[in-house]
Each structure stands twice: as C-alpha cells, then as structure tokens.
Write a structure and sequence with these properties.
This protein starts with a helix and ends with a helix. Helix 6 crosses helix 9. It folds into two domains: 250 residues, Alpha/Beta hydrolase fold, catalytic domain (Rossmann fold), CATH 3.40.50.1820; 193 residues, Up-down Bundle (Four Helix Bundle (Hemerythrin (Met), subunit A)), CATH 1.20.120.980. The chain is of the alpha/beta class and 495 residues long. It contains 16 helices and ten strands. Strand 7 and strand 8 form a beta hairpin. The structure holds 2-acetamido-2-deoxy-beta-D-glucopyranose (4 copies). This is Dipeptidyl peptidase 2.
Amino acid sequence: MSKVLVVFKVFVTLLFVDVLHGLPYSHFQSKKRNGEEREPHITELFFTQTLDHFNFNSMGNGTFNQRYLLIDNFWKKGYGPIFFYTGNEGDIWEFALNSGFITELAAQQRALVIFAEHRFYGRSQPFGKDSFLIPQIGLLTVEQALADYAVLLTELRQQLGATECPVIVFGGSYGGMLSVYMRLKYPNIVTGALAASAPILSTAGMGDSTQFFTDVTTDFEKVAPECTNAVRRAFQELKELADNRVFSHIQSELLLCKAPTSEQDIRHLYLLLRNAFTLMAMLDYPYSTYFMGKMPANPVKVACETMLRGSDLLANLRNTAGIVYNTTGTLACFDLYGLFIECADPTGCGLGYDSLAWDYQACTEISMCYESNNVTDMFPPLGFSESDREEYCFRRWGVVPRPNWLKTQFFGDELSSTSNIIFSNGNLDPWANGGVRQSLSPSLVALNISGGAHHLDLRGSNDADPVSVIIARRTEANLIAQWVDNERIRLRKSP
Ligand SMILES: *[C@@H]1O[C@H](CO)[C@@H](O)[C@H](O)[C@H]1NC(C)=O
Ligand SMILES: *[C@@H]1O[C@H](CO)[C@@H](O)[C@H](O)[C@H]1NC(C)=O
Ligand SMILES: *[C@@H]1O[C@H](CO)[C@@H](O)[C@H](O)[C@H]1NC(C)=O
Ligand SMILES: *[C@@H]1O[C@H](CO)[C@@H](O)[C@H](O)[C@H]1NC(C)=O
C-alpha cells in the first residue's frame, strides 16, 4: 500500500519540479521508518531583503525579494535546531535537491531547515534583468550575501518563535566557504558550520596554481595510467592538426558545428574539453546524478573506458566530451561557444545568468588562478595568471580583482582562532586540496572521505555510498548534536 502512495507522491513532485526547474527529482524518496515522516515538505517563499547592508545612501531603504525554501515538517517547534543552507552560485532548488543529508539529519534531530538563495542567483535578482549591469552588479559581494543570511535568520527566528533555537549552517563548495564565514562573522547567530568541499584556502590565494588540474588528472590516473596517456595523446594529435592548420579535419573528427579558424578557437576548444574532464572528476559519484547537469554513475571510469575504446583517439575524445555535453544523445554537433563560456573561473562558470554572477565574483573577491601545464597534468598548457585575470576582469566588468582581500577579511591561515566547524573533503574532489585537510583544534575538525567526490557527504544516503561517507556523516551528526546541546546549556546559563 505504502508503495503506491510513494510512487504517487514522487510522481507529483517530479512533475512540479520538472515544470518549474527542469530538474528530475530522484533523491528524495519517501522513506518511513518507525512510522516517522521522512519526506521533506518544501515551501518556496520570498523575503524582503535590504539591497545594500553597508551604505545607507546608495540605495536608501531599497529592498529586493530573496528566495528561500522552508522545511518545517521535522521541526520540534520552538525547540529543535535550525539547519540553514548558505546558498551558493545557483538556483537554490538545485542545492536543496542535491543535499538530502541535511533533511535526513533534520528528521533525526527534529530541526527546522532553511535553504536560502544567494543574491544575484536563481530568482533572487535585485534588479531583475538589469542585475548584471554596472554599477548594480557591485552589490554582489560575499559580505552582502552573508549579511542577507544574518538578517534573514534573525527575522525568521522571530517570526517562527525560534529565538532560542541554535543555528547550524551547512554549505557545499562556495556554499561551504560561506558557512565558514558565517561562523566567523556572525558567531552571535551561528553556533556551528558544516563546510563540505570548501576551498577556503586556494580561493584566498593560498595555494599552488597547478594543484587543481593536477588533482583532476590524478583521478583519471587512478582508474588507469593508460587512460591519462590516451588523453595526453589525443590532445597531442589535436595540437598537431591545429599547428598544421588542418581545421576542417578537426571539425569533422570532433563534430564541431563550425570549423575553428584561429588560435583563439583552438584555445576555446581545449578549454571546453578540459572542462568536461573537470566536471567528471568533481561529480564522480558512485551513482548517476543530476547536479550541474546529468552524469552517469562513476563518470571518471566511464570516461576512461571511452578513451580506451578503439584506436581512434580523437573519436574517443569526442565521445568522452559527449558524456558531459551530449547527455541527451541528440546533439548533432558541438557548438564551441554555446556549450562553454570562458570566464574568470578556469574550472568553468556554467551557462546562463548564474554564470555572469559567478564570473563577477571570480573577478572581484574569489581568486581562482588555476592553470594546466601538460607536465603535472594531462591537459594542454592553458595559463591563467593574476595579470590575465586583471586584464580580463577590467575589460569585462570594469573591476580590478583584489587577490588578498578574502584572506584578510576571513582570517586566511588564522582559522584556528574560531571553533565549531567541520571541514569535510573527498579524496576524489579536485577542490579538496584547496581546503582545510588537517584538524586545527578539537572543534575544528577535518574529515577525509575516501572515494568521495565534491561534497558527497551532503547528498542523501544511497545504497552505493562508500563506507567512508557513512562514517563521515555519522561523525558530522554527532558533532552537530553536541554543538547544539552545548549551545542550549550556554543559553540557559546566560541571564
Ligand atoms: C523608504 O523610506 C521612505 C522615506 O521614509 C518611505 O516613504 C518609503 O515608504 C520607504 N520604503 C520602504 C520600501 O520601506
Ligand atoms: C551525441 O550522441 C549521439 C548518440 O550517441 C551521437 O549519434 C551523436 O553523434 C553525438 N553527438 C556528438 C556531437 O558527438
Ligand atoms: C605535451 O608535452 C609533450 C612532451 O613535452 C609534447 O610532446 C606535447 O606536444 C605536449 N602536448 C600539448 C598538447 O601541448
Ligand atoms: C586527509 O587526506 C589528506 C591527503 O591524503 C592528508 O594530507 C590529511 O592528513 C588527511 N587528513 C585527515 C584529517 O585524516
């Protein structure tokens, strides 16, 4: 009986989500254990948010509508903790639908869950279609986003009768960075943070420009050294064709919509191909997913099988790129400039409006001068120095990046002065080594997830999960419960 019900519910939700967001809905299976409700009931709401938290003259008392999702069916009203997801660079539904761990934990710990959308992403556009014009775009900063979350949390705690409820923030990737920053900047509101796959060091300019693409390469190397060799040789063949300007051959081998005609086109082709490998390394989950696009289970393994199928290396390279760009199997040809946009983030900005916002952030506060070199990695040499970044950002947005600001503003290597943060990282994730890999104190805990890709721990539990992530989630659950208990004791003691 319950099965029929489950199918119906999932079906309804699927339709709803599909119509609104074009995302399949496969990760919130309704699970009833001990008769308890396990399925999150998600309500989409908007909050009247201050446009400019830091300048009283620029926008007066101007506001915009900030979107957030509320899940209150697990909450022990007025008592259970608040689990707050600090939204990052995209539509908040996409993060909510790919962060099932948070709602599973909320069911266990009777928490209220809020997923807040980051300003300038998804539907949280301060100036509608004009949001990406200069100077309005200037209101897109990390500091403004954090202040949005602080104001939203404070207001919702009042409205919902939750002023005594401890707040734990969650985030993955840039969202994980925001979770760390919330704990640093608003310890009056936030008791603890789970920062999954948060590259807080490399994005603050503390790292090595070769690390990222070296680690992407390592993932493929781990599957089979012949795999990375095949990739190198395919790029070598491509380079020879390009050097000899046999552009029509490149077009026909790689099924490009238009033949490349310049070095710029070839560079763009390299970037597009490198991006496919990057995405497969980041999203190398043990089951198929829909997050930043559709991915098969174990995409790195699938890619290596594809690279090693037969002796036509360029065909193999084309089919490997197809795992990312041709997910429907209906693409007639690759449109170089339509499928990939070059921007200030060499790991890719995605497409659409969200890519504009992320490009701006990569041009201002968030440093990602990552380069491939064909020595420590398997890709053609594609540089992106601080001066390349400066030149691009000034041309594109009229801004000069401030590479040292994040480190100054958010404690950089002095993180040991804070507390209650989990830094989790999977060893398959090329972002991992840009984050904190060693515990800094008993309450600043680094967790390693062997066999884990980009914030696997935030995803809902799955039968294909490696043991490491099951253990990591258990550790996270225990630490969070402990922080919440300690906060209650502290609140009771304070007058
Ligand atoms: C902004 O302030 C002005 C002047 O006090 C007031 O007339 C207006 O209603 C306020 N607008 C909002 C959205 O609060
Ligand atoms: C996309 O996949 C289909 C089905 O496998 C294939 O026929 C087509 O050639 C692919 N397109 C490109 C551009 O590789
Ligand atoms: C990579 O390096 C090898 C060895 O130096 C060189 O032969 C090859 O042309 C390089 N490949 C690319 C794509 O630059
Ligand atoms: C996690 O793994 C990295 C890389 O292997 C290692 O350097 C680090 O010490 C490990 N950290 C923990 C907390 O086990």
